[in-house]
Design brief:
Layout: E1 2-5, E2 8-12, E3 17-22, E4 27-31, H1 39-50, E5 55-60, H2 66-69, H3 72-79, E6 83-85, H4 90-93, H5 108-114, E7 128-130, E8 139-142, E9 146-153, E10 162-166, E11 171-175, E12 178-179, H6 186-191, E13 197-198, H7 207-218, E14 224-227, H8 238-247, E15 263-265, E16 268-271, H9 279-302
Parallel strand pairs: 4-5, 5-6, 6-7, 11-14
Antiparallel strand pairs: 1-2, 2-3, 3-4, 8-9, 9-10, 10-11, 12-13, 15-16
């Protein structure tokens, strides 16, 4: 576990990060809960802080994708705390709807991996609650749990995605509204070198909204940028780097949701753009057939 700002602790996983926010009241709030199986690692982080009297009072989800809610139900039941999410995320967390399906045709490392993953609806239990004010506001406070922080509506990567911001020291928790490593790159996906980039490409279901959200976050001029993927950026250049990303936001060259976003509402997915043809499986089959044909030809010649 790594301290990234006053009262802000990052639990770095091999793929995705979770965060613990301490308050002046000797309590803490969990931000995102990693992949399934992350329960032990997050609980160990809480125990490390509890030596100073830190007691969890809530879990806040930036969004409900599988790699951010993995241990949410177990932790909420263990500590008997509410799980807050934006009201537009609730149908994907209470089992009413599946998320818009991943789009592997965007290419890249994450796009390739997404072919082998399913985006299933989840039921994370009776502790799930609507984030206060999220049904009619684009930003708001959570005074009962995080008096110094406010949430900001940053959709695009998911329909009800939020980020968290503390004005006092300009600390930003951006979830997957952006990333601090390029997950489209095979080497970046494995080694995670520092680079501000768009959020996870194959799961982003509204690129116009995603671009607007990054530009909104850039206007906050953060001094620390902490994301779901990649190592936190904690230096004087954070705001200018985010400004550059917002100004020249890198849209993918192709993809299902590039020209037409998924149509979603408070009940889940209402309509989807047509699914594009995925050429890669056909190309792999063709390559396999060519290799087998070549091997048989060589075998016949040698005999």
């Amino acid at each position: 576990m790594r301290r990234v700002a006053e009262g802000v602790w990052c639990i770095e996983g091999s793929y995705v990060n979770s965060y613990i926010l301490q308050t002046a009241l000797n309590t803490c709030v969990l931000i995102d809960c990693g992949l399934p199986g992350s329960h032990g690692r997050i609980r160990a982080g809480i125990r490390e802080l509890r030596d100073g009297g830190c007691t969890p009072t809530a879990i806040i989800l930036t969004h409900g994708h599988r790699d951010h809610v993995g241990a949410a139900r177990e932790l909420s039941e263990e500590y008997d705390v509410p799980i807050y999410a934006h009201f537009l995320e609730l149908p994907y967390l209470d089992g009413r709807s599946q998320y818009p399906p991943a789009d592997p045709t965007v290419g890249g490392f994450d796009g390739f991996v997404s072919r082998f993953l399913t985006v299933q609806p989840r039921r994370i239990g009776a502790h799930l609650q609507m984030l206060p004010g999220s049904d009619h506001e684009v930003e708001g406070a959570i005074p009962e749990h995080l008096p110094e922080w406010r949430w900001v509506f940053t959709p695009g990567h998911s329909p009800g995605h939020i980020s968290l911001f503390r004005q006092r020291d300009r600390t930003l928790l951006a979830g997957d509204a952006l990333a601090t490593t390029c997950m489209d790159s095979w080497t970046h996906g494995i080694l995670r070198p520092r680079r501000l980039w768009r959020g996870g490409t194959p799961l982003t279901c509204d690129w116009v909204a995603a671009r607007h959200s990054v530009r909104l976050l850039a206007r906050l001029q953060p001094h620390a940028i902490c994301c779901g993927h990649g190592r936190p950026i904690l230096d004087a250049h954070a705001a200018s780097e985010l400004g550059c990303l917002a100004e020249a936001f890198p849209l993918p060259p192709r993809g299902r949701y590039l020209r037409c976003a998924a149509d979603t509402n408070e009940f889940g997915v209402a309509n989807l753009p047509d699914k594009p043809f995925d050429y890669l499986p056909l190309a792999l089959i063709g390559s396999a057939v060519a290799v087998m044909t070549g091997c048989l030809t060589l075998s016949k010649r040698s005999s």
